[in-house]
Amino acid sequence: MNDNRMKRVRVMLETRSDGGGETLDGKGGYEFRKSGSRLYFTADGASFELLTGNDLRIVRKGEVSYELRFCVGEPTECFIETPYGNIHAAVRTDSMQINCSPSHAEINVEYTLGIGGGSSAHSMRFAVLPYFNK
Questions:
Q1: Does pTM top 0.70 for this prediction?
Q2: Is 70 exposed, middle or buried (0-12, 13-18, 19+ CB in 10 A)?
């Protein structure tokens, strides 16, 4: 987070799937741009970077790593790197809402993830909040 245009922020990430869900709380940086915003944060031992524009790109690096691309109406593919090997996955974006402003951001995406002939419904919600030192 060396970019001076980035604001320090707190990020709440809620994930849901057929098998359950979790909520992560992280700290990072946020840069608003009309052409597309950038969000970077760390949570649960992993680093995340989100890039918005005509689509949404999420890069996760950690014990499990991936680069997901979401674009409504356009199927995409990725490899999920795990300690046990790489997994090929297909992503179908069912809906996506990106609301970014200079002071906050909220990103919601619902998608179907296909792995090995099976598929499951997933959702992610990112909320970008001001960061306050306590």
A1: yes
A2: buried
